[in-house]
Amino acid sequence: MRTARSADLNPxxxxxxxxxxxxxxxGSATLLTASLAACSGSxxxxxxxxTLSAEEQWAESVCASTNTVQTSxxxxxxxxxxxxxxxxxxxxxxKATLTTQATAVKSALTDLGTTIADVPxxxxxxxxxxxxxSNAKASLEESAQSVVAGVESAASAxxxxxxxxxxxxxxxxxxxxxxxxxxxFTTISTVTSAANEELSTAFAAAxxxxxQPTPSAS
Length: 218
Fold this sequence. Notes:
8 helices, Four Helix Bundle (Hemerythrin (Met), subunit A), mainly alpha, 2 domains
């Protein structure tokens, strides 16, 4: 009896080794499945993101830059508070605020010009659209420069009265500049809708071309 029982216990330990091999195989299969799932998910995520055509990239860039110009004009003087009786520190703070805002306008106009010039060379009709947008941008820039000139005059003021006078010039020109920015958006729509199908579709579908900032009540 003892002999039979001893044989049944399998003192060599091969049963434990078999279980270990099965557990190892199961663990390897689980890791392989998880790795395949992760790769599959990564591939799916990468294929979900559409690749924009040259026309679509240009359309989005032009409209986004135009939005930035309009937004920077809307911000000019929006958070400015100045009390002529408050002293030199208040004057310097007001001048610094206006200077920063005017710099943002100039930077936005420069970026818009660069974006318009970055026209896709292989797209039929794009050069004509670029020319018309460049001409319209020149008109917008002329209006904006009148505002910037008023701001720069205010920023160079040495007295509160000079600052108020310079600011008044900027404010008087601001409305016209904002209208020019809105008119530029209209020009984008008019010019591109008359272009070939690829360009007109690209501009019509670009998110920034549909997200024109709402003009302020001022």
